[in-house]
Specification:
The structure is a homodimer.
Chain A (H helix, E strand, L loop, with lengths): L1 E5 L3 H12 L5 E5 L3 H9 L5 E2 L2 H7 L2 E4 L6 H11 L4 E4 L5 H7 L8 E6 L21 E4 L6 H14 L3 E4 L1 H30 L13 H5 L6 H10 L1 H23 L3 H12 L7
Helix pairs in contact in A: 4-5, 7-10
């Protein structure tokens, strides 16, 4: 099988490596607007060759869209306009707008909407790793909209890579992603800014690797060009979660102001029950 | 050298293991109010024997206080009342109240106030690990208040374990700890509650290990009995940081509400500069 990866960054590059490593594809073709990314992807062996989008679509059995989420809906339409029996899939973090935009396309059935639940704070082809996805869950959205053969091909790929599959609607996926991924990034960005704000006044903010800070703020290194479109595309879900999160912090603050130790302990004990759903 | 560890939980237990592993002590005596902790500490070989506080003080060259921070000031006074030429040190996360309470004690010089910058979301002797502290920074507070020989002994121990030492006043340490440790815990607790709140309504909150959530919320598993006293003892610094953090989240929310993509990107780019101080 031949695959075309459109957008050879952290996600597309890692997927390209997995397609080769697990013997799924004998040729991987890279497509990217950035000359830097194209050169890096070739030099690092993420792809076998570089092509234009049109050349790649014509040569590939599978077209994988791994660009920032704000570009995916129109890109998906353009690709669907050109495919015949190829399968097209995306790997973006948001799905509602994409699935709505392509819903009436006569070849909608060739498209499979997926969200592999993996990422790091790094970006670009330099950050791609072949074992990125193995063991992680992938969400497939609106599967009834995909042709059975297209769905089956994408399922088989994710199964070979070792990813458990969850099925849900694009609405459910975007809500879920807001809770398990998007809010964590906002919290980290805000935490980094909090510390940077204070650091201007104080000389004693150092050794941030210590005592829990590093893991909580790690995501603040993430790419704004990746995340701004995600937050915008999932705006209403993200705002819901963000309001609830600010509310929880305000409750905590009020208990601390009032020396309500019992309340603090009860609140933290409740938070401890996250163990139940966090493996 | 013989050491008495008062409070054989995550921190005291890990320190006991390090004292043996690095050949610093030939006997480690455990003191703990909890029968469970005493039994676990013996069974797991964290300590050589169990004793009462008075027996342990009489037998030891070094007395290490590793109980919850709200109990340390009075415990430190009681121990100082009984020591002659022994050295006493604590390992708590807050220092101002402790250092103020013991400041006028005639044997204040025997005391060395320290905060090794390490912890996990787990607690109790079961969670103790011998390599906990190696490579981590330790803060020593108000060193001019300690006798030179007492300070030198504690410095030598931390150096043998492989911990870089930073010196600061107890005021500076508490401010620093609020930023690099305490706020991360509050954020994690609040994030866990946000998700648990939503989970009551939705069936689709799952696979929380994915996509960044796990690392941001890990600390929400931490012990309320450890952390409520830390937040209370460092109340004013923690409230300062918490207010700034809520403020940053509110700015983020407003930009998202107004579709201010440029603002969002500029804010995240600023947050990215945390790379500068985060190793």
């Amino acid at each position: 099988m031949k695959a075309a990866i459109v957008g050879i960054g952290l996600i597309g590059g890692s997927f390209a490596l997995a397609l080769r490593k697990y013997g799924i594809c004998d040729e991987v073709i890279g497509v990217d607007n950035s000359e830097h990314n194209r050169n890096e992807a070739l030099t690092r062996g993420l792809v076998d060759r570089i092509a234009t989008l049109d050349e790649a679509i014509a040569a590939a059995d599978l077209v994988v869209l791994a660009t920032p989420v704000d570009s995916i809906p129109l890109l998906a339409l353009k690709v669907l306009n050109k495919v015949t029996d190829q399968v097209v899939m995306d790997m973006g973090s948001t799905k509602q707008e994409l699935c709505e935009v392509i819903s009436q396309h006569p070849r909608r059935g060739r498209f499979v909407a997926t969200h592999p639940m993996w990422g790091t704070e790094f970006s670009g082809p330099e950050a791609a790793v072949s074992e990125a996805f193995t063991g992680r869950t992938v969400v497939i959205c609106d599967r009834e909209m995909s042709n059975p053969d297209a769905l089956r091909l994408v399922e088989a790929i994710y199964e070979k890579i070792g990813m458990p599959i969850k099925y849900m609607s694009s609405e459910e996926q975007d809500l879920h992603a807001a809770y398990v991924s998007h809010i964590s990034h906002i919290t980290s960005f805000a935490l980094a800014l909090t510390v940077l704000e204070k650091e201007r006044e104080e000389d004693h903010i150092f050794d941030l690797a210590a005592a829990g800070f590093e893991s909580t703020v790690r995501l603040a290194k993430s790419s704004p060009r990746t995340w701004a479109p995600i937050f915008m595309q999932n705006k209403y879900n993200v705002l819901d979660v963000l309001r609830e999160h600010i509310h929880q912090l305000q409750i905590f603050r009020r208990m601390l102001e009032k020396d309500d130790v019992k309340g603090l302990i009860a609140t933290m004990e409740k938070a401890n029950t996250i163990k139940r759903i966090l493996k």
